[in-house]
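pasting for the record
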Amino acid sequence: MEEHIHGPDCGAIVIMRFPADQYQRCKNGLIKNLPIHSNYSDGEVEGIANYDQITKLEGYWPADKGLAFLAFESYPAADRWTYSVPDIKQPDWLGGIDMILVPCCEHTKIRHSVVQILDLDIRDYESLSQAYSPEASELLKQHDARQVVSVDVLKSGKKVKGQWDPGYLIVNTWESEDCFNQAYYGEKNQSLIQKRLASALSNSCVCVIEPLIQRHY
């Protein structure tokens, strides 16, 4: 398992968790601030999901939170953006939100509509890297999925605000719910889950995100 340490040319993603009853306000706020967002390294709102589009997979995941994903071409630009949007500076914005900033792997765009998040509490990093990660990477390739984030948030990311304190964060994206379900519930991944749980606890979910604007890929 290779951590992605950010540099000036690396992409980054801001992940927001907002109260489910604030979905429309969050969506309206993101649309309102799109001009500010695009000024920072050609940033884009990759997508948004309400609580009923999110499925808990393992451990704890709040059932009353929605998710939004914002992408930037560089980590420094994303960091500057967090200081530049007036709404973010309000402590009670959307009734209180969680917001983290993480560097990307080689893929700086989410592109796919299905997003899997794994928040890992790693007990044995070496064992996880050797026994789990190579096979997990191969499974992603077989199903044309992408690993967008793989990072120790405390060391190489940033908690912007809120109560969410991720450990080691992994974000994978999948082309469709069918592709994800076939991989996640398949026999090979069930053995992989056991290998991962031998070295780390995980709080994880999968969600279907909807774009705010038309993508131009």
